[in-house]
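@channel sequence for tomorrow's demo:
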Amino acid sequence: MIPVLSETEFELFRTLLQNKTGILLKAARRQTLGRRLAKRMEALGMSSYTAYYRMLKAGKNDEELRALINHVTIDQTSFFRAGPQFDLLAGRVIPEIMQKNYGLKQMRIWSAGCSRGHEPYSVAMMLQQAVRELVSWDVKILATDIDSDSLKYAFRGRYTANEMSHVPEDYAKRFFKPQRHGGKKLYAVKDRLRKHILFRRLNLLESPYPIKGPMDVILCRNVMIYFSRTQKQQIMGEFLRLLPIGGYLCLGASESLIGIDDRFSLIGHAVYQKQKN
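structure tokens (generated this afternoon):
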């Protein structure tokens, strides 16, 4: 049986994970981290936190480090999370982008920290529902995350009935196909949504990002809360590079750009618009 993670051991792993991902775990998450470390250690047949830490620190097992990062960064998300923000996107932001880009008929959106795909698929559904002429537009949604397991889940695009609870019934019928998988009823994303989305692994602290841009909208919701002020400013520097003047940035409801960057104006529901370079 693996022992309880001590405060000293917690600090070692917290520092390691912060250096590798930028995520700073709060002290209150010591027990949670201990449970997730224990799962990885059991899989490797290890019982010593110190030995496991030394193996990761030595950098001789990148696959195990990635597996641990995947376990630590598990996020709870859902379709159409923060409904008022989606209403603002559909009612104001997307129409303004379409008016501005009407000549090119092109739209680029980035879901940064897409987790298991609920956010980019929600954006794709919102676009299909809100824009009748979308079929004649070149629309691409880039969906990135540091967690490769979550990206695999998102790419498969199969969701349980519980996960579908936030999807309106008409959306479920239009955009998902019920199927049986492993004896369980699942809902598979239809190609009409898939064709707009490109999934890629990306660490937001590894700049410059391999993204050309420009992006019309960047969604980075409930991600910045894990980073220090310096790291937030670094990330914002990349967002500013990719967003043109007039581009939009969506954050989580509890997040703010106060003290981070003053080149954006708040238009409502944690949606910001870039005002200057």
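heads up for whoever presents: The first strand starts at residue 106 and ends at 112.
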